[in-house]
Structure formats: C-alpha cells, structure tokens
C-alpha cells in the first residue's frame, strides 16, 4: 500500500472510531478510545517497527481523554472526580495487561507527549496523577513508560512531573515518602530518571528550591545502597556523542554534584534568613529541632558526595567500553560555569568571617568532584579552563592543587627556572592584600627528597566531610 493510501486509510479509521464514541458517556468513551487505539497501534506495529504517531490518534485522545473541545462539539463531556479516578485505574490496568512493550510505549507517548497546544496542561495533570497512582499500587509497566517519557521529553515538562510526585509523597501526607521509596527495586530506571528530574528542579538557587528533607533522605538512601543507580540510563541507552539540548541529562551526576557542593552555603543562607526573620527559637521552629535537622541534612549530603565520587571512579571503564571516552562529557563544562558563579555569589553574599567552614567545605567538595570528573573522563576540559573559571573563587588549598595539576619531575635537558626553586609550582591565586607573598623556604639537606608524582600510581582516596 502506498503512503498516501495508508494515510487515507488511517484517517478513515480515526473517523470511524470517533463516530462510535461521540454518543457514549465520558468515562465509557475514554475507555473505548484506549481499546480502539490499542488495536490500531498493534496493527501498525506489524508493518513498521517504529510507526509515526499521526495527528488522528492524538486528536482522538485530546477529545475523549483530555476533553478538548472540537468545532463540532463545543461543549465536551467532562469527568467528575470519581470518574477520573476510575479512568486512572483503567489506564493502570491497561498498561499492566498489555504484554507488548512497543504497544505500551507508543500509546503512552501518544497520550502524554507535549503537543504545544491547550491540551498540554490537562495532559500533564493526568500524567502526574497516573504516575502517582502507579507508584502507590506499584504498576511497574507505567513506571517504565514514564521513565522513557522522561528521557525523550523536554526538561521543562519533566520537572513538572517531578514536582507533582514530590508534592504527593513528600508534602501532602507525612510518612508517605516510604511508598515512593519502595519503587527502588521495582523500577530502577524510573528512579534514575526521577533523580535527574528532581536535581534539575531543586537547584538550591533559593530557599524554596532546597530539596525537602524526605526527598533528600530517599535519594541518598537509593544511591548509597547502589551508586550504580546513577548510571542506569547511560548504560542502557544507545548514545550519540552530541546530546540534544533542552532535555534531561543522561545521568544525574551534574545535579548531584550541584547538591553536594552548594548545600553548605545554601543551608547557611537559609539559616541566616531565618535568624533575620526571627524564626529561630520561636514556637514555629524549635531551635533544637532546627539544629538537629540541619545536622541530619549535612550528614546525608556527605554520604551523597561519597557515593558520587565512587560512581565517577568506575565511570572511565564504561565510557571506554562504549567508545565514548574523551568524546562524551557526562558532566558538561557549560554546567560547571554557572555552578562556580553561584558558589562565588553565595560566598560573597554570606559574610566570609561567619561562613568560613561552609565555604571551605563547599570548595573542598567542588575540588574533589572536578578532580574525579576529569580523571574519569566525565568532564572534558583542561586545567587552564578551570583556572580561568575558578579565578574568582575564594582561596582553597585543595582546589588550587586540582587546578594546578601534579608537580611533574623536571626534564634534565630543560634548565631550571631561574626565579623559582626546583619542584616549586607557582600559586594560582595571589596573596590577599596586606599579606606578603611567602618566600621560598630554605632547603634541608638532611631530609629525604620529596617523592615525585607518578601518573600511573593509584592512591587511597578519602572524601572530605
């Protein structure tokens, strides 16, 4: 059959389905449209492995599932709350009973892929409720479809789904996060995508965008139990060297690094604002409770930082295996730039005299993350790039060591530097005003010489807390 004939046949089929649905009540029509489109897509998949989703099925779903008015039907039938709940149950059961993953995926995509029209708000609202129900009743096929949806949908929509789930399980009902937590073993792929979405949503740029403690505890427990969870999408996806712009990243590595690095400063900023507003010590927020909560959060970020570093230690082998080492940056340098700028801004905003330890911890974590990301091939940049980017940050010994690089033994054929002692690496940062530069220390001939850096030698690594 020619393409034009196939298109004509498809339009005729959609028209026949519509005529059979317009006389039904809203819930019955919604149920029937799923049934008819299931048959339609099953037939399409027999002739093409990846059929294009045409306009006809999308319009049917918008009319009978999302109730967008058509010219011929200006007053569409609406579902009441009970009928909507029944529809969600019908959809959950459909995706569970449909055994062909390809049919599930194409129907899920037809239902919930944004179309850039008025139906998108209804589409996103129903998606949030469907995935929330799937979490509650553990409908793994729905979660797997949602994981694929998160991977191929622009990030602005992904964070809306993430926000809906966080509100349902971390805000509305205390303790309900345990229900969300249980999907770790049921659908790790969804968990990986969900972490990527929530780290994109909660970027700690303001007090409102600090992750809720229940969400933080859940994410940390997932990753600490199995740090490889971070890499599931990356390991199970055919990847090109150039990733699309505007979508979620392949891994949540960048978002998790942002959490760990910015957390000390963001919580200090939050505490400073609370003191200014007189909340600390009031009946609303007991002081002891607040201090204990902050300590719990700092301990969790420390565990998370360790897990992120552990993942990057095994990442080089996976990049090499996929022939992407040196070609694909999972931690993009363009995302490091705003992170460094935010750290610089927060350091200036907080009084350095009152936030010395927080600034030091933040910069230590940044240095460790940068070093491990560069060593594993996750971050593709030179140390010169890092020197330029980090030039405005407060001085930090570990960060200076990372951006300076190891001290290499001098070649015999090269003359020693005339103004610097052998083995001395010049400082990147100039001393603060009012303090003289350190002079070269006198040599001690009785002490053994410092061991030179050997590039191929491994060394024990202990993250700073």
Return the structural class. Answer: mainly alpha
What pattern of helices and strands is seen along the backbone? HHHHHHHHHHHHHHHHHHH
Rg measurement, Å: 28 Å
User: Spans with pLDDT under 50 lasting ≥5 residues?
Assistant: 280-289, 412-463
Number of helical segments with 4 or more residues: 19
Shape: elongated
Q: What is the first-to-last residue Cα distance? A: 66 Å
Query: How is the biggest beta sheet arranged?
Result: none
Task: Give the helix level as a range of percent.
Answer: 55-70%
Count the E strands.
0
What fraction strand? Answer: under 5%
* Mean pLDDT, all residues: 82
Task: Note the quaternary state here.
Answer: single chain
TL;DR of this structure?
InterPro entries: INTS15. Helix content is 61%, strand content 0%.
What does this structure look like?
Helix 6 (119-137) crosses helix 7. The chain is mainly alpha-helical and 465 residues long. The model is unreliable at 280-289 and 412-463 (pLDDT under 50). It is 61% helix and 0% strand. The chain contains 19 helices and no strands.
Question: Layout of helices and strands, plus pairs?
Answer:
Elements: H1 3-21, H2 26-47, H3 55-64, H4 81-97, H5 101-112, H6 119-137, H7 140-152, H8 155-172, H9 177-181, H10 183-186, H11 188-201, H12 213-225, H13 232-235, H14 253-277, H15 287-321, H16 333-349, H17 356-376, H18 383-390, H19 397-404
